[in-house]
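This week, think about what follows.
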Amino acid sequence: MARVKTGFTRRRRHKKVLKLTKGQWGTRGRLFRRSNEAMLKSLWYAYRDRRNRRRDLRRLWIIRINAGAHQNGLNYSRFMYGLKQAGVVLDRKMLSDIAVRDAETFRKLAALSAQNQ
């Protein structure tokens, strides 16, 4: 049986990894082994931080809603409980956007929340 060398396959795999790490500092963008390590690490960080971004944004939304609720004499938990009792179906992202951009509407929501407790 003839001997098979990995010339084309290996070159294609190396080029793919080097393309992904292009622009990284030093040998991380030039040498295959260092590039492969950098690529694996960066892909893991990207996967992890996509989840962390969702977590951080939710925290930011809650902070904004809490600040808006405090301006209207409520705290976050009472505000959210009142909205739930009133049957208002707005997620935290939309509520925080309303709190930042439209104080008058948020004041009406806070009044509705306070009324339904």
The CA atoms of residues 74 and 110 lie 8 Å apart. The domain at 8-115 is CATH 1.10.1900.20 (c-terminal domain of poly(a) binding protein). The two ends are 82 Å apart (CA to CA).
